[in-house]
Amino acid sequence: MSPDIRGKLQRSKMRIKSIATLLITAVILQLAIADLPVVRKKGYCTWYGECGKSPTGLYNCYYNGPAIPLKDKKAAAVLKGLCPWFFEKSEEPALCCDTVQIDYFQRTMQLPRQFLSRCPSCWHNFVQLYCQSTCSPDQSLFLDVKLKIPYHPKLAINNTIINNGNKKVKAVHEVAQIDSEEAAADCNGPPVDDDFNIQEETPLSEIDSNEINPVDTDSTDTTTAKPPRNESIAAVDYYMTPEFANGLFDACSEVKFPGNNEKVLNVLCADPTGHCTPCSWLKYLGNPNNGEAPFKINPVFTDYANPKTGIIPMNKTTFACNVATGVGIKATCSCQDCPAVCKPLPPIPTQPKPPTIANIRSVLFIVIMIYFSLVAIFILILVVRYARDKIKPVDDANLDDEFSEKIDHAQNSQASDPKSYLTLRNELADIRSINDSEERCDSSSVLIEAGSVMERTISSYFGRLGVICARHPIIVIVVWIIFVGICSGGLAFTKITTDPVDLWSSPTSRSRKEKDYYDKTFSPFYRTEQIIITAPHSKSSIYTTREGTTQQIEFGPVLQRDILEQVLELQLSIQSLVGNYTDSNGTVHNVTLEDICFKPTSPTFSECEIESVLQYFQNNNTLLNKAVYDSDHLFIVADYHDHLLYCTNNPTSVKDIGKFATPCLGTNGAPTNPNTALGGFNGKHYVNASAIVLTFIVRNHIHDADNVKARAWEKRFLEFVKNYKNPNLSMVYSAQRSIKDEINRESAADVITILISYLIMFGYVALALGRYSTSVRYFFIDTKITLGLSGVVMVLCSVICSIGIFSYAKVPITLIIIEVVPFLVLAVGVDNMFILVQALQRDVRQPNEEVEHQIGRVLGSVAPSMLLTSLSEAIAFSLGAISTMPAVRTFSIYAALAVFIDFLLQVTCFVALLSLDTKRQNSNRYDVVCCVKSERVENTNQAGILYKFFSNYYAPFLLNEIVKTFVVLIFVGIAMLAISQATKVEIGLNQSLSLPKDSYVIKYFDGLNKYLHIGAPVYFVVKGPYDYTSISGQNKICGSSGCNPDSLVQQIYIASEQSNYTYIAETTSSWIDDYLVWIQPIGDVPCCRKLPVSHRHYDFCPAAEMNSSCIPCLPSKDIGRRPVGKKFIRYLPWFLEDVPGQICAKGGHAAYGSAIKFSPNKKNISATYFMTYHTILKDSKDYINALKMARTIANNISSVINATVFPYSVFYVFYEQYLTIVDDTFLSLGISLGSVFLVTFLLLGLNIAAAIIVTLTVAMIVVDLMALMFFWKISLNAISLVNLVMAIGISVEFCSHIVRAFVISKQETKVARAKDALSRMGSSVFSGITLTKFGGIIVLAFAKSQIFEIFYFRMYLGIVIFGASHGLMFLPAFLSFFGPARMKSEEDKAVMNYLRSRPNRPKTPSEGPNESTALLA
Fold first, then answer.
1. How confident is the prediction for the chain on average, in pLDDT?
2. Dihedral angle over CA of 791, 796, 798, 801, nearest 10
3. How far apart are the first and last CA of the chain?
4. If phi over 0 gives left and psi between -120 and 50 gives alpha, with beta otherwise, what is residue 619?
5. Which run of H or E residues covers position 624?
6. Closest to 1251 (Cα-Cα) out of 1230, 1231, 1232, 1236
7. Is-contact 1382 1305, C-beta < 8 A?
8. Cα Rg for the chain, rounded, in angstroms?
């Protein structure tokens, strides 16, 4: 054996021998002093001074002698700040603590004071607990020493297990811990004593502590000048009354920590949330395993004094939280820290029930009554008319049928033989009474006379225009090609708006202004990349807690160790992802999460902010697998379960004060909110979670171009997660760019569907415009494929021109315009094309009439109708531009211009093409292949099959007296029912509807609704200057003791107590409350310290920096006082720089680093916010109500603090539109209907009755469409509002042509005119807009986009069906009953002049009505 080895062995033997000797001495000493009497009386101590370091602090020296006066002025000042009641009788009170103990006491109280001092009663009671145990001169009465160990100043205390042969010898402080763990689980006294009889106890009220003296104190020398320091106290029992313990617990049980709004007892109590009791709390505070208690202090609760032992429990007065202590801050605790202080919560307004009449909804009851009233009036009119018809001669009733064929023939030939038509009319007037003259016209009506002049003028103008365009087709076409080419140049400047904010929020709206203010002042809200993880194959487990009260705790399936390890692996893999992007120079750059992430504690910590439950383990697999064993290394006493329990209850804790002894703060020193990191749990039982939420926070920028790096990394993130495979983990995910990406993918996917839809419509138009004979030889002669496709091209040209013109004006375009406007213009254009072409096909060219003149004459007859519909729609859309919603406004102006340009193209360019096509057909040339010519015997125009069907079958059936009566009653009844149901349409837009049906983001939204327990953050922003530097100003903001009961923080707290109504999940984090505690000059190392660098110039000293040159920011005399004036502002930036740590948990850098903006001169606060969270919002109704309530709360706060306060959350800007969507809808529809009425009135010969009928019919279509929205689950939002406005334009196409044809019809009766209008215009409307749109709409049902399927297919189908049914069924039937007067023509004037010139003529209506005429009038 070498000498070195022999030396080491020798030294080891000596060391073991020394330790063994020490332990034997300790045992002998313990046995020797066990029988010594203990003096228990007032004025006697249990300890005095310190006797060595314990593993967690300092041991106190055993001393059972009289209390010793405190002479040290500095120590007295410190103690007086904590325990002023000791100095009530003397400035040098006799106490049981020396300066070292007082200094240690002050340091140990520093952290609890930061948590508890916001509630004066709680803090007073808590300090009382430790003042009595540390320094009370009566310690001997209630402190019972359970373990003492020898103390030698030169021997360090050993915390290791010593191997002595086969036996393990433990250090004495470990023995103390073992003894404490073996103590009873409850705190009920008396202490364990075999000879003790509970019946010997005496109630406190019957005991005088001076009489309890089990030994003769006179024979004991207790006047030692200097207490001996030869024994250290390792464990004591602390006797107190249950009244005191309960009073302390009750006063502190609701105190909140402003940084995370959790209860402070979650930090200071080992038991899980909701299980903490006075016993478990005090046991935990006295357990050295918490890392703070210097030795074991075991609480014992009893109401009795024990004459045998002389122990009298401590029973100092406690103050309830709603009672002022009278010491220090003379105020009660605040409402949020003490529910007893709170005023009763205001009653939640009950949702008003819909008003009813006779147990029927009022709206439904009213429309039912209106309907039956209309039915009664209608039946009365029918009865009156039936009675009038009975008065007429029988022959007169058949005049129309007798002369119908003759008049039709004369009307068609009046150009060549005008006298024949006049003769027949004179003959008819000679036979009939002018009692029916109102069926033709009222010559006394100035409006109708003026309208007739206007009609003739417009017809004449368009007739001349048609002749010019038909005569010079090439010039017209070339001019339009040049115009379209110039407009198309604007496409180079087209800017497509896809940002939802720009689409749905007006720049002048309140939420948009507030968002812009927030973004510019505090920076935009972060970009979030989030994954929700579940473990489908894992099961929950039950864990039995080992510290505090034993509990059976269920840990969710995702919180099993193996699952957490896999989640950690996934998280670390994501953190290491590298994306790339190409800059403007074409250079490729790499980008990592570190480059773009949000770093809340920078520059102190450079790590990214990642919301993850693994942050409780600092993202470290070693810590996750850490297990703490007992001293024998046989049993695990703490593992990741205990740490999760602790950290989910105390996320801001700088150290797990249990045996796991690991910080809860993440790698960047910031806390992780369990509400955002876990999901699928019940209440506050976080560890029941069934989902883990990983959230990577990325910096955002005001200008989207600056987010190119973030988008590049997000792209890589999505690729990785999409391809990630792990059978044990199920994930749903989303990135900030996901919605925009999916919308773009959706648009690309539905391009084919949209193209097919338009191709079907184009193909139908190209084929349906032709008129085909039975001979196959003439098929290609009669087709109008070229003409139809040319008309479609004109529709596209009108849209291109509209886009180009507004692009020149720098008006951005939206996807709604691209998707909707072509559909709208095609509807208008196709209808007009069919009307013009079919009118020409049915027209018979007069002898010697040129094609150009024929086309001009036909255009003159139908162009006013085309002008009526196009101008109505253009004006209706243009007036829609007054909407504050950008998407509606831009749609309106683009649609208005496109419709107007399309009309101009149709009456000029299309007429020119029609002239060329007519000449081609007349020369028997093939369509498309014009060079091919065929022979044809005759080429005469004739009525088509559809025209014959309408004229010979449909019109007679519909206008049958019984049928038309039921049609009117049914349609009016449907309209009345629709009115009652339209009020039930839901408001909003489910965000998932904007995505493809197979989108991964839809699954993510489902995961949010299923698992998350807290909603979006909401910031209450205090805007502009406010006096934070005065006490009164602070009281209006803060939420701690002394603050106003209606302060900003208190109002938000009260709102959070009614979260089901207010949608506020929790009270706000309050920087001002934390700052007022942070700046206090308390403790050995105050949070706020400054380092002198020159005269009146200081640098900030962080609490973690041990520098003796640093001094407190405020003098000690300011303890308990708030900083005011310049002092308040001077140290606030330092508070915002300070990172929370073990010494100072109140540092504001992590929680409030960006919450305060100073004025340019740094002398005041220009803006700040107070953050909280909304509850989980699942549908549009929740989002809208959350916005409403937040604004209500902000308005109340503003009125109280006399400053501007507004709420901001990321979704407000999208949902503000729904606060006024109903008003916007009525305004837009009302203006559009008003413009339809005005244009119809002007262009239908100033016929107000015709204008009213058209407007009411259009309104009925829109109301029916809104009822369809209710039944088909289509919500009211900007998209559906655009469709409703468009529905008015398309409905005009269905109605105006029919009404105008009725007004200008030369038939004599309403029924005949209705039949004539339905035959001539009905067939064109049906074959034009109805069938064209129906074919295209059906294809939209197969779109992948939910928006197309719901808002376009369903609503467009409703528009076509309701428009066609009203235009082709209801309107002719209604006109046959209540149609307006016929527009007076030149022939009518000739007839009236002839009748007036005849002798013995009947009286005209202007000369005096007969009985029948008067009745009808």
1. 81
2. -140
3. 138
4. left
5. helix 621-624
6. 1236
7. yes
8. 46
